[in-house]
Amino acid sequence: MSARKLCMIPGPIEFHEDVLAAMGTPATSHVDPNFIPILGESIEMVRKVILSEVAQPFITSGSGTLGWDMMVNLIEQGDEVLLLNTGYFGENLADCLTTYGAKVTQLRAPAGSRPSADELKAALAEKKYKMVTVTHVDTSTGVLSDIKKVAEIVKATSPETLVVVDGVCSVGSEEIRFDEWNLDIVITGSQKGLGVPPGLSIVIASPYAIKVFQERKTPIPAYYSNWNKWLPVMQAYEARKPAYFATPAVQLVYALHASLKKITSEPMQVRFDKHRQVASDFRKTVKDLGLKQVAQCEECSANGMTAIWLPEGVEVAKLVPALANKGVQIAGGILKDIATKYFRIGHMGISVMEDERQHIPKVVDALTSSLTELGYKSA
What we know:
It contains 13 helices and 14 strands. The protein has about 375 residues and is an alpha/beta fold. It folds into two domains: about 5-10 and about 265-375, Aspartate Aminotransferase, domain 1 (Alpha-Beta Complex), CATH 3.90.1150; about 15-265, 3-Layer(aba) Sandwich (Aspartate Aminotransferase, domain 2).
């Protein structure tokens, strides 16, 4: 393990040894009496992570993108959707919703920014929306949206409008208070703040969202994503009973269970605060190096990752391998038109919560020395 590169991209992140050990669980039936409580308890612990007493989690095999696809349960042909676009993943979510017949209006912001509260209020005044979607952290830019404020504005204007949060790059690293903030959907995947290998899609739905799903007027034009198939399965496992629709990723669920046990072993506020502090310190280091981050303000900067503009004369095609040669894997940019102009570094999970691992200092050292090697001289 010591010879491999630290995975410090914005997901997949580093995995705890207990999580990796759980992946080594021998072949086990998905209806084995030993597995049933593992999935059942995982469903319950997901609620604790997003601070909900009443939400319905769905844990299924698939990437975080499958969570977008599951919005087919709420969208009907011609439904109006307002999408707050802060980057690459907002753009792709719009494409997904359009596939299922939604009429998507995008409220865009310049790279590194987010739509303002006034812009949101103005958009909501123009028409009635079935759903408002917001990417909590857009992994392409490191921009953090204020989902509490978004939900507050939406619900004050139109209580019937669903508030859908893409939390793929935020659950487990950013503060989310599902019940208190009146959210309806949070979508995430296993491989980022939850610290589990890729392969699990996790969607959390409010009782109101479930009601909207149950009262829809048209059939759901999907099979695998269909909540009519999955809801009885989730309810059965939480009641510690076997059920079947499609085979779960048993070993990944064991890994999720191991990670969630660690995450929920202390108050979530401790985790939120630690990610904020480490991110703030890292942003200061970036600034001290004479670099600028893509996110344009402190309050719109993610706590689980940072996107950084490349200094003049340094190419991402040289910077990424330079760090890799020092045992640290970082990521280039992915936002259209500016992808070659910036790079991204993740700081989530055990890399943040367990100081003794020294992951963040290693990243800083590798970044500093690599920039020097490539001819960059900080101010």
